[in-house]
DNA sequence: CATGATAGCGCG
DNA sequence: AAAGCGCGCTATCATG
C-alpha cells in the first residue's frame, strides 16, 4: 500500500491530496483532501494504526522537516526526485517507461533544487503552529520552482503529477533487467532521504565549552576582532624572522612563495607535503602556523557561533549528492570535521553515544561483488589488510593497504602502483572486476553499481578529445591528450563501482539500523533529551553519518539494545545485498556514556 | 562590487 | 606538484 502525497489541484500551500493506491497499474483506491495544517495529525494517525504505508512524495527535503518539527516520523517513503535521478541514468531500468508520455514528466529531469544555504531554526524555536513556511515550499527555491510551472497539476509537487511519476517509475523498474536490485536501491535511497532529514532535526550532540577549551589550548584566548590568536601571532613572527622579512603577509601564497625563494628554499608550492621534505629554520613554525590557521578559519570561534546551537551541530546532509551515490553535505563542513574536534561530541546526561564504523568497507564490497573467495577469506578476521599479509601476497600491513587502495583507485606508479600486480596474482577475480570497469570507462562506456546506479556518460568535451585523436591529421599531442583523458575516465569508472556499491551497503546498513531503533519505542519522559527535537527526545536515533561510519544517540535504557541493532544491521545489510556471500563486514564499535542525571 | 578559478587542507 | 578516487570550505587573486 502506498499513499501519494502532493498538493491538491489548485490547493498549493493550502490543501494536500492523499491518494491511496495498490498496484501501480490499477486505478487509485481513494483520494482524501486534507488542509495543510492537519497533515501531521493525519499522517501520524495513519502510522499509528494498521499496516504502515509507503508515503510517496516528490521531495523528502520539502515535505518531511515540517512533520519532524511537529514530532511526527514515518517509517517508509518513496522519494520521487531521488529515485528519478537513479532511474534516469540506470542501465538496469527501462528508460522508455520512465519517459512514456504523461504531462510534464520532463520536470523530473531538471537539476535538483538547490539546498537551502542557511540552517532552519532549531525545532524548539519553530512555531508550534504548522504553518506553510515550515514546509519550505514557500521559501526561496520551492516557490521559484512552483511558480515556474505553468499549471499546478504539472508541477512535481502536485498529487496528480506525483501519481503519474510514481507509475512511470514503477514501470521503469518492473520492465528493467533487475527489478529486485533496483527496488532495493530505491527503497534504500528513499530511506536515506528520511534519515538525512531526521539527523538534521535531531542534530549531533556538541559541547561548545569543550570545543572552546580546545581552541584556547591550541590557539590561545579568543582574540578581539581583527587580531590573530596569540599562538598564531607567535608562529607568524617566528616565520617572518626566519625569513628575515618582518612585513610578510603569510596568508598570501604568491608572496609567501617568493619570500621562501629569497631565503633559498626553492619549493614550487607552499603546500605542506612539499615543505616537509626540506630542512630550514622556517619550516617548523610555518607548518605549525598553517595548522593553527586551518583550525581557526575552518572550525574556530566563528564556526562554533554559526553552527552549534543549544548543544547540537545540525549540518544539512545531501543524499545522492555525489555521482557515486555517496552523500554530500552543505554547510558546516560536516563531512570534513577534523578528528581533533571529535572530543566535543559528547552525549547528553543520561544518554550515550554509539559510534560504529565498518573496517575496510570498500575492499570488502569489492570482494563480495566479484565473488572473490580468496579476498573474502583474507577478510574473515577484523582486519582485511592483515588477512592479505597472511595470504602471502604482500609482506606488511602498510603494503597491503597501499596495494588495495592502488587497485581501487587505479594507481600506476610509485609504491602503490608497484604493489598492484601482486594483488592481481593473489586476487584475480576482484582485480578483473575493477580492471574491466576501468576498460569500459576508457572506451566511453558506462558502468553500474551492484544495485543499479550507473555512471554518468562522458561529456561532450571528453568525446571531442577522443574523436580528435582518430582524425586523419591527428598528431602525437592529440593522441597523448586522448589517452590521458581516457585513462582519467577509466580511473573514475574503476572507482565508481566500488565507491558506489559501498555507498549502497552503507545505506542498507543505516536504513536497517533506523528501523530497528524505531522499533525500540519511546523511553519514559524522565529520560528525555528535548534538545533532539520533538520527534527524537525520547528515542534512540541516528545522529551522524560519514560514508562508512554512524553515530547513534541513545537513552541509557536503550544503549544495549541500540548497540545490538547496529551490529545486527551490518550482518543484515550484507545478506540483503549479497545473499549468501561469505564476505564479513566487521564493525568497530565504541560506547560513550553521558553524565548521570541528577 | 560581484562572480569564478585556484591553492590548500580537512574528511572517507 | 602527488603517486591514485570522491567530496566541501576558506582565502586569495583574477576577471567581468
Q: Any overview of this molecule?
A:
The chain is an alpha+beta fold and 598 residues long. It has four domains: 2-177, no CATH class; 210-304, Up-down Bundle (Taq DNA Polymerase, Chain T, domain 4), CATH 1.20.1060; 313-359 and 503-593, Alpha-Beta Plaits; 362-500, DNA polymerase, domain 1, CATH 1.10.150. The chain has 22 helices and 14 strands. Helix 16 crosses helix 17 (397-409), helix 17 (397-409) packs across helix 18 (414-426) and helix 19 (428-442) packs across helix 21 (476-519). The structure holds a DNA duplex (12 and 16 nucleotides).
How many extended strands? 14
How much of the sequence lies in strands comes to 5-15%
The number of distinct structural domains comes to 4
Largest sheet: 5 strands, mixed
Helix content: 40-55%
The unreliable regions are 114-150
The pLDDT mean sits at 91
Q: Could you say which structural class the secondary elements and strand pairing correspond to? A: alpha+beta
General form? globular
Q: What is the count of DSSP helices, taking H or I runs of 4+ residues?
A: 22
Cα-atom radius of gyration = 27 Å
Q: How are strands sequenced across the largest beta sheet? A: 3-2-1-4-5
Measure the end-to-end span.
46 Å
Amino acid at each position: 500500500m502506498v499513499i501519494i502525497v502532493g498538493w491538491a489541484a489548485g490547493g498549493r500551500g493550502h490543501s494536500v491530496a492523499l491518494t491511496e493506491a495498490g498496484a501501480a497499474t490499477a486505478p487509485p483506491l481513494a483520494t482524501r483532501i486534507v488542509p495543510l495544517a492537519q497533515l501531521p495529525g493525519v499522517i501520524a494517525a495513519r502510522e499509528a494504526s494498521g499496516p504502515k504505508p509507503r508515503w510517496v512524495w516528490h521531495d523528502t527535503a520539502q515535505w518531511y522537516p515540517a512533520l519532524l518539527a511537529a514530532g511526527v516520523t514515518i517509517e517508509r517513503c518513496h522519494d520521487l526526485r531521488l529515485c528519478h535521478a537513479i532511474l534516469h541514468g540506470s542501465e538496469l531500468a527501462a528508460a522508455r517507461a520512465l519517459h512514456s508520455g504523461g504531462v510534464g514528466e520532463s520536470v523530473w529531469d531538471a537539476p535538483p533544487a538547490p539546498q537551502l544555504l542557511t540552517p532552519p531554526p532549531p525545532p524548539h524555536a519553530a512555531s508550534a503552529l504548522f504553518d506553510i513556511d515550515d514546509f519550505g515550499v514557500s521559501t526561496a527555491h520551492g516557490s521559484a520552482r512552483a511558480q515556474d510551472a505553468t499549471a499546478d497539476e504539472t508541477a512535481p509537487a502536485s498529487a496528480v503529477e506525483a501519481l503519474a511519476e510514481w507509475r512511470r517509475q514503477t514501470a521503469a523498474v518492473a520492465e528493467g533487467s533487475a527489478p529486485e536490485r533496483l527496488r532495493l536501491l530505491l527503497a534504500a535511497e528513499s530511506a536515506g532521504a528520511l534519515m538525512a532529514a531526521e539527523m538534521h532535526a535531531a542534530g549531533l550532540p556538541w559541547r561548545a565549552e569543550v570545543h572552546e577549551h580546545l581552541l584556547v589550548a591550541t590557539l590561545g584566548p579568543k582574540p578581539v576582532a581583527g587580531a590573530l590568536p596569540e599562538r598564531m601571532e607567535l608562529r607568524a613572527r617566528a616565520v617572518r624572522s626566519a625569513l628575515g622579512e618582518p612585513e610578510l603577509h603569510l596568508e598570501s601564497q604568491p608572496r609567501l612563495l617568493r619570500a621562501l625563494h629569497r631565503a633559498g628554499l626553492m619549493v614550487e608550492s607552499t603546500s605542506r607535503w612539499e615543505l616537509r621534505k626540506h630542512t630550514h629554520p622556517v619550516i617548523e613554525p610555518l607548518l605549525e602556523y598553517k595548522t593553527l590557521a586551518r583550525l581557526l578559519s575552518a572550525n574556530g570561534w566563528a564556526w562554533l557561533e554559526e553552527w552549534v546551537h543549544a548543544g547540537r551541530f545540525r549540518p544539512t546532509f545531501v543524499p545522492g549528492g555525489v555521482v557515486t551515490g555517496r552523500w554530500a553535505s552543505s554547510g558546516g563542513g560536516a563531512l570534513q570535521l577534523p578528528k581533533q574536534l571529535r572530543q566535543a561530541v559528547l552525549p547528553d546526561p543520561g544518554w550515550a553515544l554509539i559510534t560504529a564504523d565498518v573496517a575496510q568497507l570498500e575492499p570488502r564490497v569489492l570482494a563480495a561483488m566479484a565473488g572473490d573467495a580468496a579476498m573474502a577469506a583474507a577478510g574473515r578476521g577484523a582486519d582485511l589488510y592483515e588477512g592479505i599479509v597472511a595470504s602471502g601476497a604482500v609482506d606488511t600491513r602498510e603494503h597491503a593497504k597501499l596495494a588495495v587502495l592502488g587497485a581501487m583507485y587505479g594507481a600506476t606508479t610509485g609504491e602503490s602502483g608497484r604493489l598492484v600486480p601482486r594483488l592481481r596474482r593473489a586476487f584475480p577475480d576482484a582485480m578483473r572486476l575493477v580492471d574491466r570497469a576501468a576498460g569500459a570507462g576508457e572506451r566511453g562506456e558506462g558502468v553500474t553499481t551492484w544495485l543499479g546506479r550507473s555512471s554518468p556518460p562522458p561529456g561532450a568535451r571528453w568525446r571531442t578529445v577522443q574523436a580528435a585523436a582518430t582524425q586523419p591529421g591527428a598528431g602525437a599531442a592529440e593522441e597523448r591528450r586522448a589517452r590521458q583523458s581516457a585513462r582519467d575516465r577509466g580511473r573514475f569508472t574503476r572507482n565508481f563501482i566500488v565507491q558506489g556499491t559501498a555507498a549502497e551497503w552503507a545505506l542498507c546498513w543505516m536504513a536497517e539500523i533506523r528501523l530497528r531503533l524505531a522499533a525500540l519505542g519511546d523511553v519514559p519522559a524522565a529520560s528525555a533529551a528535548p534538545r533532539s527535537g520533538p520527534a527524537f527526545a525520547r528515542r534512540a536515533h541516528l545522529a551522524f553519518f560519514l560514508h562508512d561510519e554512524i553515530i547513534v544517540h541513545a537513552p541509557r535504557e536503550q544503549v544495549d539494545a541500540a548497540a545490538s541493532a547496529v551490529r545486527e544491521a551490518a550482518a543484515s545489510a550484507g545478506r540483503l545485498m549479497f545473499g549468501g556471500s561469505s564476505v564479513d563486514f566487521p564493525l568497530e564499535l565504541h560506547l560513550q556514556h553521558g553524565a548521570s542525571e541528577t
